[in-house]
Write a structure and sequence with these properties.
One of its GO terms (cellular component) is external side of plasma membrane. The chain has 200 residues and is an alpha+beta fold. The chain has two helices and eleven strands, in the order βββββββββββαα. The chain has a four-stranded antiparallel beta sheet, with no helix packed on it. It has a three-stranded antiparallel beta sheet with strand order 4-5-8, with no helix packed on it.
Length: 200
């Protein structure tokens, strides 16, 4: 332990001020920030891990801070790992797809530790990660599929229309042979025009 005092000369007289009557350094530790922070993103979660000296692993606690890359740290989200292991997971549902995120971590001696006490370390270096975006179909594929869905009913309608016209034409032929050729020609021409209009 130590006794910390401050001495000074004020108005020609020496004064001594006791700052800490009993100063114990192990109760006032400030740790170095964690090192080598890294991240890996899958479809279901983002894993983040970092390094600390091996002899401190069991007595430290951590705080992770993450945010969208373009946002300010003042509105960042905080997470506390459930154990003393130097790692944490973020569920994919907490991240927006296609958006870049940035994270950092700091550490201090666990509140459950009796032998040492510390304040939070400085923040570590950062790691950047991004949840994969949901692949979108291109407009070309969408247009192709739309045409495929429309082609079947349009084709069926066209065939039904032609069949109906042919049936009517055969009736007209039986009823009036003299008007058969002009009516068939008009019916066929009308069918072609309607079909071309549908296909457009």
């Amino acid at each position: 332990g130590y006794r910390v005092s401050l001495q000074g000369n004020f108005f020609g007289r020496n004064h001594t001020y006791i700052t800490f009557a009993e100063y114990n350094p192990r109760k006032h530790i400030k740790l170095d920030p964690p090192l080598n922070i890294q991240s890996n993103v899958t479809a279901s979660k983002c894993q983040i891990w970092w390094s600390v000296p091996w002899y401190l692993v069991e007595i430290l606690q951590y705080e992770l801070q993450y945010k969208e890359y373009s946002m300010s740290w003042e509105i960042a989200l905080n997470k506390t790992p459930p154990s003393s292991l130097p790692q944490i997971e973020i569920e994919a549902t907490e991240l927006r797809s296609g958006i870049a995120y940035i994270a950092r971590v700091r550490c201090k001696v666990s509140e459950n530790e009796d032998s040492y006490h510390s304040q939070w370390s400085e923040w570590s270096q950062t790691t950047v990660f991004q949840r994969p975006g949901v692949p979108k179909l291109s407009e070309k594929i969408l247009n192709t599929r739309t045409m495929q869905f429309l082609f079947i009913p349009l084709s069926f309608g066209t065939l039904l229309y032609l069949f109906w016209n042919c049936k009517l034409s055969s009736r007209w032929q039986k009823a009036s042979p003299a008007l058969t050729f002009p009516r068939q020609l008009l019916s066929f021409s009308h069918s072609i025009i309607c079909t071309m209009g549908i296909l457009r």
